[in-house]
Write a structure and sequence with these properties.
The chain has 273 residues and is α/β, with parallel strands linked by helices. Helices cover 44% and strands 14% of the residues. The chain has a single domain, classed as Rossmann fold (3-Layer(aba) Sandwich). Helix 1 packs across helix 3.
Amino acid sequence: MERYVEMKKFSNRIRIETLKMLLHRGFGHLGGAMSIVETLSVLYTNMKIDPKNPKMEDRDFLVLSKGHAGPALYSTLALKGYFDLEVLNTLNNNGTILPSHPDRNLTPGIDMTTGSLGQGISVATGVAIGLKRKNSERKVYCIVGDGELNEGQCWEAIQFAAHNKLDNFTVFIDENKKQLDGTTEEICNPFDYVKKMESFGFHTVRVNGADVEAIDKAVNEKVEGAPKCIVLDTIKGQGVKYFEELKANHHIRFNDEMKEILKVEIEKLEAAE
């Protein structure tokens, strides 16, 4: 379908712009940004938004609870027209509108300041129940990291969402299987997210987090009377083989070799457009 061809192209462009931005900065959270690229491509194809009017009253909401993946979201917003692509090169600069983690007071298109892990999903469920009580048709999406789910606050929000039957709410679990200090299995074994989320009362599916068609179908599946969870089976550093295989790929300060690898990878992705 043409729809999925366009989503794949959009994913490729998000990945290119994110890599360029991080290369220019010289460091950043490459691993977790790369693993949600396809999800952002799907969401920003589906969501009701207006880049020319970021505060549009009837827009859908996205809360990037794993705020360290902000660079991928910034690239998506720039490509959608919220601000110029050139602004991406100001990531983390003094006075930038693109801080390390998303800030709703600085960046057009950001609805929630995030990065304090565990808190984003609580705010997202709060927005969802508020909209539900207003009988609004608006949807709320939230992306959490698998390492982030070590936080107990997340599970309070998850139980709250299911109890209140927030069928306007979808949470994505980016299961890239690694966090800051190692693998999730080593640090605090998460076991089976599908079984866990179903036991909490969510309609839950697991999809290949690199497959835009699978993600899109899961997003558009109609569910009534329960919130939805989409478990994304991803790889940290997704789409860039060297960084997929790099052990410490949460936050990377690029050495000269890495910079050359990044340049080559960007050229390959551009050639594939």
